[in-house]
Amino acid sequence: MADQNEEKNAEMNEEKVEEMKMSNIEKAGDKSCPQCGATLVYSPTRRKLYCQYCDYVEEIKKVHNDKVMEKPLDFDKIEDTVSYEWGQNKKLIVCESCGAEAIYDELDAAKVCPFCGANHVMELDGLKGVMPPDGVVPFKVGRKQAAELFKKWMGSKFFAPGKAKKQAEPDSFFGIYLPYWSFDSHTATQYKGMYGIDRTVQGKDGKTYVTTDWYNCSGNYNYFVDDELVIATTKHDKGILKSVEPFDTNNCLPYKPEYLSGFVAEKYSTGLKDAWGMGQQQIHSLLEALISDHIMRSHMASHAQIKSMSIDYIDPAYKYVVLPLWQSSFKFGGKEYHFMVNGETGKVGGKYPISVLKVILVIVIIVVIIALIYNYMG
Questions:
Q1: pTM, to two decimals
Q2: Residue 331 in 3-state DSSP?
Q3: Does a structural domain hold residue 74?
Q4: How many structural domains comprise the chain?
Q5: Cα–Cα distance between 178 and 232 in angstroms, integer?
């Protein structure tokens, strides 16, 4: 009797495994395992396609030229040269609750929005009109390592409650490729400004004071902007996204659908023209800081102010890339805190609870130190 039960259980387990395999086969988009037929997914730790059922591993074929080249930023020609082929069997899903759009394998039954968790998702008619990526930075950090990095990051936060550091456990990690526009351009900037040189003077009361002498200046500044990133989605916290940068977009790989296998890619919601406008604003801020530093070093000054800047963009170029991120959240004190892990470098950024007691304690210590210094000096 025991042998019969054991045999029955073994048959049920085999049936269950086979059912799981068939379920996974139904989700297959681009690549099936040649040994068992299940879906091959991209493994960040192996940097290869991997079968989770029979451990089959397959290299991703390299393209002849593995350098992703930027394309000239010519808006009159871009629409005429767009290719809409993402790879075999892809579909576009839109969430009716939050409006997010994501790209899945064609046969993947997407019933839950990966961004807000709502179950009101709808399939759109293909990907026509959606520009495919030029390049991809593949995942290098796996799910398990991302969880370990989160725990380490959380433990380093001084102002986080000790209880939160011990108890914070992330919900299941979700791997996603987010869309970015990357811009290159030579720039030639004409600027006008002022620089200030500090000097010490003695007042009538016998005390010394610092005063600043200001002088006008102007000049030209040349700079090559390399891979200025503009996030092409509005569905995520930009502060968190900025905190997990940088990505090595200079060495990104030409887009191949195999790198997306097992992950979701979000469709861009910020078009190229709007992104270039945002990129110019970012470049303006970058150049303002660089020119200020250049003025201070040139004149051995203490301060610099930029009054006006005129920037010429010479041969601007762009590329559309998708970058890897793990996203998750944890709950503490009845609140939910979201965070992300850079899928390439492992850098963590996000929200976390603050201990009011620790903040008060630090303020008290600072006040006491200031009081002691004041009493000592007079």
A1: 0.77
A2: strand
A3: no
A4: 3
A5: 8
74 to 81, 189, 317, 330, 355: CA distances (angstroms): 11, 21, 8, 44, 52
Same domain, 265 and 213: yes
**Predicted confidence (pLDDT) per residue in 12-39, tens digit:** 444 443 333 333 333 333 478 899 888 8
329 shares its domain with 343: yes
User: Does residue 234 share a domain with residue 162?
Assistant: yes
Question: Do residue 211 and residue 125 come from a single domain?
Answer: no
Give the three-state DSSP class for 368. Answer: helix
Q: At residue 181, what is the residue type?
A: W
Same domain flag for 103 and 27:
no
What is the extent of the structural domain holding 23?
18-61
Please tell me what DSSP assigns to residue 77.
H
Look up residue 293 and give its two tokens.
Answer: 């530093």
How far apart CA 5 and CA 11 sit, in angstroms, is 10
Query: How many beta carbons lie within 10 A of that of residue 305, not counting itself?
Result: 13
Residue identified by tokens 């887009």 is 255
What would the pLDDT profile of 202-221 be if each residue is shown by its tens digit? 888 888 889 999 999 999 99
What is the spatial distance between Cα 276 and Cα 315, in angstroms, rounded to a whole number? 13
pLDDT given for residue 16 in this prediction: 40
In degrees and rounded to multiples of 5, residue 23 shows phi and psi of -60, -40
d(CA 177, CA 261): 11
Q: Around 283, how many Cα atoms within 13 Å sit in the side-chain half-sphere? A: 29
285 in any annotated domain? yes
